[in-house]
Q: What sequence folds into this?
């Protein structure tokens, strides 16, 4: 009996991840490439997890493959899977329950902390996020000054080894702010200045020591310094969380001392330092378009139109949201930026190809282009519109994934209970 139960358990395929990679042709859909282009009444073929062909119906090079499964997507939309470039997804379950939080390590300087090892593929938040079209997410450690290393994860898999798309994308740093707070809860101005100077000193010492360590022959391995090795060679990215203009400038100049071009995360004051950002070729992970302005005299809609300001200035950016479950709203925040001046297909780009470029995975992810991974979805409405968006099916690297989540199940349960499912 026990043996048969074990065999049954082992024979159950994790439908959310291990579905067979099929040969499929999608026909008749409006195809949103993800790079700003749009194909009406298009056809796309995926095979062995890769996009092998894409064209419009009027093309003389029609896609024909008798061995393929044909899905009629006429009147529907096909999008690349959205990318959440900065999240706690998989590291946080219930915000108010400490035992379910695993995104923060003890100490201030932890470049050796790796978020992917703590990534929980059984999180109930993941299905709710991917049901809105977010199929990959970078999971980021938080806490302290140097928080650790982030990884890009597929939102499907048995364990973190299955789910990892790109391990250790970069090191994350919370820039010690120069801003002096005068609130009742804040320490004195002198103490704030002293703490900031101390943080700068610790940070500079860490980078100097790590650079020296990685330039010399090592007898004893230092995990913190070793984790930073690829920063100086350019193989790893440096993500710096900085909001205010002085902090952004200081963070970029600090990075340049070590030959690093950082990616600025948050960047509330990005609109005030546009020329500086452009001159230094800085990319931005712009957080929380659905938020209030940071200053009383700012335009009330400044967070909504900030993406448009960056777009018109020619600064590369992508959209992100703080937290974990909040990632399900990513397409709608991108949609808001479209309502405030960003061309609609470019707003989609900010959560697809632009995010892939900033994270260093654009060769395989972020757009529906021949040769890239078949990570895509079908929607019956506009994915960026909260009212019409309805994701019907989705694939990650050619494997169809399960879109059902606990919210769907509860809805069905109570519709049936009260006889409303007829």
A:
């Amino acid at each position: 009996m026990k043996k048969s139960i074990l065999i049954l358990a082992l024979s159950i395929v994790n439908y959310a991840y291990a579905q067979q990679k099929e040969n499929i042709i999608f026909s008749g859909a409006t195809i949103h490439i993800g790079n700003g282009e749009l194909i009406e009444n298009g056809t796309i073929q995926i095979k062995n997890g890769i996009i092998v062909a894409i064209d419009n119906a009027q093309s003389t090079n029609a896609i024909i493959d008798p061995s393929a499964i044909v899905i009629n997507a006429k009147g529907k939309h096909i999008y690349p899977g959205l990318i959440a470039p900065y999240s706690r997804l998989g590291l946080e379950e219930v915000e108010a329950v400490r035992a379910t939080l695993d995104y923060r390590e003890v100490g201030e300087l932890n470049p050796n902390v790796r978020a992917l090892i703590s990534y929980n593929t059984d999180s109930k938040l993941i299905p709710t996020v991917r049901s809105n079209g977010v199929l990959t997410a970078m999971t980021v450690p938080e806490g302290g000054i140097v928080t650790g290393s982030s990884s890009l994860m597929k939102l499907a898999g048995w364990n973190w080894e299955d789910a990892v798309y790109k391990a250790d994308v970069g090191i994350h740093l919370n820039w010690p702010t120069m801003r002096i707070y005068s609130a009742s809860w804040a320490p004195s101005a002198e103490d704030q200045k002293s703490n900031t100077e101390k943080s700068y000193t610790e940070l500079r010492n860490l980078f100097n020591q790590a650079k020296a360590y990685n330039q010399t022959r090592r007898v004893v391995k230092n995990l913190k310094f070793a984790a930073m090795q690829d920063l100086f060679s350019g193989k790893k990215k440096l993500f710096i969380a900085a909001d205010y203009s002085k902090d952004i400038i200081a963070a970029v100049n600090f990075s340049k001392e070590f030959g690093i071009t950082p990616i600025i995360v948050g960047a509330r004051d990005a609109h005030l330092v546009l020329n500086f950002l452009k001159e230094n070729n800085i990319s931005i992970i712009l957080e929380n378009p659905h938020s209030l302005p940071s200053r009383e005299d700012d335009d009330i809609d400044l967070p909504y139109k900030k993406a448009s300001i960056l777009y018109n200035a020619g600064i590369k950016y992508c959209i992100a949201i703080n937290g974990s479950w909040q990632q399900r709203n990513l397409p709608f925040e991108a949609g808001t930026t479209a309502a405030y001046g960003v061309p609609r297909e470019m707003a989609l780009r900010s959560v697809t190809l632009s995010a892939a470029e900033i994270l260093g995975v654009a060769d395989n992810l972020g757009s529906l282009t021949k040769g890239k991974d078949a990570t895509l979805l079908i929607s019956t409405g506009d994915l960026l519109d909260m009212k019409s968006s309805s994701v019907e099916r989705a694939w990650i690297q050619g494997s169809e994934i399960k879109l059902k989540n606990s919210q769907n199940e509860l809805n069905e349960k109570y519709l049936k209970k009260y006889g409303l499912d007829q």
About this structure: Confidence is low (pLDDT under 50) at residues 1-18. The radius of gyration is 23 Å. The longest helix spans residues 189-213.
